[in-house]
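Below sits my pick:
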Amino acid sequence: MTVTVGDPNDVFCALSDARRRHVLYYLLEHDDASLDELADVISGWLTVGRGMTTTPHRRNRIRTDLHHVHLPMLADFGFLEYDWESHHVELRDLSDEIHKLLDESLSVERARTTETPSPLRSQGG
């Protein structure tokens, strides 16, 4: 069964958190992953994009949040399947609408992280 845009509120709620979006970006390329693999990738993306260093503590916190909050929410909304025992994550078949939304979101995030801050922007100009 293909996951479609049912209630837009559900879709935007699911995509409102960067960790959930990054899980989906990764799974669009790899189809499935382990919880540990996702924790490694997501902690790297989120810290490097902010000019921070990934630490074991930060990675473990992200892993815990993925396990208890983000992966179950994405599973509840039908984006993926998450096996609590094996910690295996698998992307479900997403509609073209959702693919387009994720592609656009990823493009915006990439542009934002590669932007060089303008001195005028920081001065309100």
Summary: The longest helix spans residues 56-76. The beta strands are 32-34, 80-83, 88-91. The radius of gyration is 16 Å.
